[in-house]
Task: structure prediction
Amino acid sequence: MTAPQSELQRIVSALQASGLTVEAVDDGALIQHGESRVALFADADHQGGVIVRLHLDLDLYVEEDSLPEILMGMNLLNQGLDYGILNLDPVEPDEEDGEPDEDAPLAFAVLGRSVLWLPDLGVTELDRLREHLRRFEAEVTDAMERTLHGSKGLSA
Result:
């Protein structure tokens, strides 16, 4: 069940009013925060309130043969995250001639994800959403930058 458009519009308007660059897209919104673009989706909760999902595409991709090491590293990183998690999403293979290449290795995108339940869209809850969004983006980005530019890499 999708949240009424007016709820998503209220969230977008509140984020724009706080100075964030927000662009409405199909069923959600894109929020520009520095170099990052966070996708935001809102769904009505059947028990009341709104469930807000945040997705941060990190532009990092791993191939299937690296999964054991990557998963161990992501598990360790996720233990230190408070506002989101790192997740793998399968990437559709490119089809050069209209046919998928069955021999191509599977690839996965590394994404940051977070979910926040808002009991209502009042000022206090919208402020909490802004703070959660800020901390989520900073926490995931910082964790990935430390890992990629540190000495340990993504492997455990």
User: Anything to note?
Assistant: The first strand starts at residue 21 and ends at 25.
